[in-house]
Amino acid sequence: MIHHHPDDNLLTEYAAGTLDTAQAIAITAHLHFCTQCKHKIMLMEQTGGAMLETLSPEPIAPDSFDSLMSMIEKGENNRRSTPRKAGDLPNVVSKMMDHQSLKWRKVNSSLKTANLVAGQKQHAVSLQKINAGGVVPEHDHRGVEITVVLKGSFSDKNGIYQAGDFVLKEPGDVHQPLSASNEDCLCLSVESAPVKLTGLFSRLLNPFIKLRVA
Amino acid sequence: MDTLPSTKQHLKVWNDHLMNVGRSQDRQAFKALFEHFGPLLKSYFMSKFPSQHSVQMMDELVQEVMIKVWQKAMTFDPSKAAASTWIFTLARNTRIDMLRRQSKYATTSSLETEDIWDDTTEDGPYQLLQHNRDSSQIQTSLKQLPEEQSLVIRKVYMESKSHSEVAEELNLPLGTVKSRVRLAQSKLQSLIKR
Fold it and tell me: Which residues of A touch B185 (CB under 8 A)?
């Protein structure tokens, strides 16, 4: 059962196609698990379709249909339907994983991270793996960080997050994620700016932050 | 032939045309779809890119959408989505494709827009949608929204503006735009579920 969802604003921007690619990937990953949000998206897309019908038509060049048909005839073999692999992981995530060699980097004894190539430079998209029973250093967020649980579960002071749960953290949200004791937790993470660790010692562990001489 | 755009009969016509294109590559049906949706799609693209791009480019974007309609019509299932809904998702993805091609933030990637924004009507929780298929019902519900909400919703969907762009344009705080969108969405959800 999924308890943590994107809000209607994020879903609306996704359905309207204005959300940036990386955050949209996080929404798609969540939709893989979440019937309720998938239903909302479909309703939002129906709204888009209904509005399309109410626009005032703009005339098209008269030869446009004929040139369209000749383009189609040239590429006649392009009729396609795209088969999807059904799997545990969202298609969008497994496709990224299949097309690159993942380089896992150890952040501390319980947390590993691997960057994903997501076709954009505005967000850091990565996989995060927390060992069973592992603890991630307490950290704040300098930008928006979205985490979608893909396997296993983790918890923090606000709740427990299981496969499919969508967690959005903003600057000022300090938390210390803790993995369930019986299995590893795999998450998709989309960050608009590097996460900032809050504990003094943790600074040494944060790969994103340059150390300053105090 | 000229029926009111909001009648159910009218909507069924487009679904049937799409089915025929999918099943037998019916060119007459495809032409009818082009003549109806082409000018609406052009209007959609023009509201996002006013005057920055040539008219010819708008026609090319329309053609790009209609090529996808031709190529993918066999995946269209009218029991799962209305023609206008599916064509809206194709248009939205075509616009995203174009922006991704032009974006200075874009890098090469194995991901296609369709991997991120699904455009198939094949899978999904359709059992929930039994009462939600009818876009004439949605049009009626849209008319019942307060003006301030429907204006914001229109800018978001048809002009493809982010919440912050809408806030800036209407000179409203971002929080106000966000709450209008949420109010409109929950109203639409409740009106349609009735």
Answer: 8, 11-12, 40, 44
Write the burial class of residue A73 (CB in 10 Å: 0-12 exposed, 13-18 middle, 19+ buried).
exposed
Q: Mind listing the pLDDT tens digit for each residue in A25-57?
A: 999 999 999 999 998 998 899 999 999 999 999
**What does the longest C-alpha to C-alpha distance in chain A come to?**
71
Cα gap A64→B35, rounded to integer Å: 10
The shortest C-alpha distance from B170 to chain A (Å) reads 17
Report residue B62's pLDDT band, with 50, 70 and 90 as the boundaries: very high
User: Quick check: B38 and A8 CB within 8 A?
Assistant: no
With CA atoms as reference, the chain A residue closest to B128 would be A39
Which candidate from B81, B89, B160 shows the least CB-CB separation from A18? B160
Kindly report the length of chain B: 194
What are the chain B neighbours of A44 within 8 Å (beta carbons)?
A: 185
Chain centroid to CA B79: how far? 18
Distance CA B58, CA B191 (A): 35
Whether the Cβ atoms of residue A139 and residue A171 lie closer than 8 Å to each other = no
Please indicate whether, in this complex, the C-beta atoms of A39 and B129 are within 8 angstroms of each other: yes
Query: Can you give the length of chain A in residues?
Result: 214
Distance from CA of B1 to the nearest CA of A (A): 17
What does pTM read for this prediction? 0.89
Contact call for residues B75 and B22 (beta carbons, < 8 A) = yes
